[in-house]
Task: structure prediction
Amino acid sequence: MSKSENTLPFIPFTRPHFDQETIDAVAEVLRSGWVTSGPKLAEFEADLSEYFGGRPVRCFANGTATMKIALQVAGIGPGDEVITTPISWVATSNVILSVGATPVFVDIDPVTRNIDLNKVVSAITPKTRAIMPVYLAGLPVNMDQLYALAKEYQLRVIEDAAQAFGSQWKGQKIGSIGDLVSFSFQANKNLSTVEGGCLVLNNIDEAKLAEKFRLQGLTRSGMDGMDVDVLGGKDNLTDVNAVIGLHQLKRLPAFQMRRTALARQYFDAIRTAMTTTGLNDLRLELPVENFTDSNWHMFQVVLPLDQLNTDRAQVMTELKDLGIGTGVHYPSITGFTLYQKLGYKADDTPIAQRIGRSILTLPLFPGMADEDIGRIASALTGILKKHSKN
Ligand SMILES: *Cc1c(COP(=O)(O)O)cnc(C)c1O
Result:
């Protein structure tokens, strides 16, 4: 490709946004003399607790530590089974393994791309202690069905809501309802502290336990008292990160409106481009058109690979050549070498296997321009047309 063809700016699949006020606030923390967990963390946790309707909230160094500590708070360990989805960031099942428990993978619903709750019951055994659903791209599962299952089978629920900050269920914020709810503030997430995470808990006893797990199992008393009665790690969130979170939380409603508006435009632009390109027989799968519950963390399509004479990698390469970044979220966890060695079979969750091979994340972040959507839609459909078997 000649240089002149490539003059449009590159659109990454996502990009965090930190405004000048946030940058100034970080500088202030750095100058204050107190940079690790302190007053800004306390303020951020209080604001988050208010956001989640008064439930206790504790922050951690990242979403992975948050989920691991959620499992520890629930007392899940060796001999226990945790039901989860194979289509997630591998952190979800890695933390189950890291506390010594066993992940049990249930196949996904091809429409929502989340765990198929109708298939959960047949995976429950006497060892099952918890369900760990993931809200892929910010779309929650059916929360009524999830908690009815948990109640009937006396299971804990550890919600991997890493991607679902700002998502809702029947008008209630994800995190303001439910059992243990874990969020990530990693750079790509809708609310970012660069790295970080938070856990919404049920009561102060759980919050105190979570505090111990995040700092060496330590409890302080009086002026000089110190004791350690459980094994904890070093998973605290710093004030530098917390102050970023405080500012991002204020921007969240604006971010959310922009993401939703862009998602709406995607549906129109892709459908129009498919029709004008004569591709109506191509089974390109779009996300669930949900503008009330989803926080539109990502906009993902599933490529009709059986109708194309190419693969996903080539589609991604051609989009990249046109200045469009994409991502893969995610291949099925059961296909990874570690999980294969542990005896998991990718064939046992065939829908996850198919979608894991063909899902593609298109750019979506609040800083995108309206024109970007049309450009991406026509680039994608042009590539599909070129590689269509029909
Ligand atoms: C981001 C993410 C995590 C992990 O969060 P980190 O902050 O990166 O540790 C876990 N699960 C899902 C689904 C995620 O998207």
Q: What stands out?
A: Residues 62-64, 88-89, 91-92, 134, 160, 162-163, 184, 186, 197 surround pyridoxal-5'-phosphate (CB under 6 Å). The longest helix spans residues 239-276. The chain has a mean pLDDT of 97. The chain has two domains: 20-246, 252-387.
